[in-house]
Amino acid sequence: MTEKDLNRIKVMLVEKKQTAKWLADQLGKDPATVSKWCTNTTQPSLEILIRISELLEVPIQELIRTNEKL
Q: From residue 42, how far is each of 2, 45, 53, 57, 69 by CA, in Å?
């Protein structure tokens, strides 16, 4: 895992059988912005992460990578 890989949004979207476009529509965000979150190019705010966890019906901890292996 690289330092930049902080979230698991893409993984959770796949597990929940949803698309980045669906998430963008639900959040009222540009699909390019959500794409950047999914590739860990940029990170969403904590407020947005909370909303994503609500939309995907998962605990916020499931969206955040931890450094368990360190």
A: 14, 10, 18, 22, 23
